[in-house]
Amino acid sequence: xxxxxxxxxxxxxxxxxxxxxxxxxxxxxxxxxxxxxxxxxxxxxxxxxxxxxxxxxxxxxxxxxxxxxxxxxxxxxxxxxxxxxxxxxxxxxxxxxxxxxxxxxxxxxxxxxxxxxxxxxxxxxxxxxxxxxxxxxxxxxxxxxxxxxxxxxxxxxxxxxxxxxxxxxxxxxxxxxxxxxxxxxxxxxxxxxxxxxxxxxxxxxxxxxxxxxxxxxxxxxxxxxxxxxxxxxxxxxxxxxxxxxxxxxxxxxxxxxxxxxxxxxxxxxxxxxxxxxxxxxxxxxxxxxxxxxxxxxxxxxxxxxxxxxxxxxxxxxxxxxxxxxxxxxxxxxxxxxxxxxxxxxxxxxxxxxxxxxxxxxxxxxxxxxxxxxxxxxxxxxxxxxxxxxxxxxxxxxxxxxxxxxxxxxxxxxxxxxxxxxxxxxxxxxxxxxxxxxxxxxxxxx
Length: 445
Known about the structure:
This protein is an alpha/beta fold. It is 39% helix and 14% strand. It has two domains: 6-78 and 336-444, Aspartate Aminotransferase, domain 1 (Alpha-Beta Complex), CATH 3.90.1150.10; 91-332, Aspartate Aminotransferase, domain 2 (3-Layer(aba) Sandwich), CATH 3.40.640.10. The longest helix has 25 residues, at 336-360.
């Protein structure tokens, strides 16, 4: 295997970050001005996680391109970290939003589109009943509350390295024994006493955690994505479902990221049987919207008792604008034919990256989940969150992102993840692979 000189990485980072700053004077000036009114200089703190000492300020985003205020146009392979998986402002969704805006946005009353949306979600994902929320965090939070109500239990089990939005119960880790804040920079409460956390793919740990019969629900992705793409081992989901049922624990499947696999997600592809299903990000083409599905059995149990007016929902959830956007997106954008186009392009990207890695003899690998791919700087793909955390290389991550940005490509800032949208072209991924090859040559040449 080829060994990379660590001092070479440092030298390249310094060079690329200097270039980044020099080529973006307007973004730099706007960032300095923004610090006067916006906390950390941005409207949402994650926006500081991009490469370089400041984020680019966006002038326009359309389809698979983004243009900043300095006039640089980028191939966008981040796509709002999945929120714009559809491409930016897809025509059908943008048209539906524009039309609905002039007919009313929110009345805290249903529209006819909401019935179409409920029926389509049921058809795609297999659960009969649905609610519409504003974010996937909301959908997960409310599914947890419903699970607690039905089970009369309080504890939530998640997997180390997971991501389910800013749900407090999911911000935990098994590192160093006691559970504490997940990963490196979580802001929030002390480790949640209502959480239990185990490693993905560890059935013995799952059995031990559920055996006290005090866990209300397991909240999980069908394949992990935030710690890199981590696939379940053969038979894992069958065992997870059998074990949760045996101990009276409900199962919440979150497909906010794994919807990259197909129009029905991995729930349809793998014939999963969740009690609750949650999804957000791309389902309204970039407009904030999410959905939660539940089984007939749970719906029957939850129909009785007081109204769900407080603690589940939100004044600006399930609006006419959201349901119009979801309908347009599911009906015209996130279709089977769209995935039939996107997935082969993602395969082309992943196979090209894999060839470059192998030809250079590097101890790296690339994984792909539908139209989502990720390369990691370790030889063996991690099988759980702990192995993934150990494989992170902060310097290489930092270099990759700024190197690509300087050559007109945006990657997801939190990790080396690339997304192919309906608007992404073969030429776009070929450019990505060309730049990836240039980076590898700089590192090993």
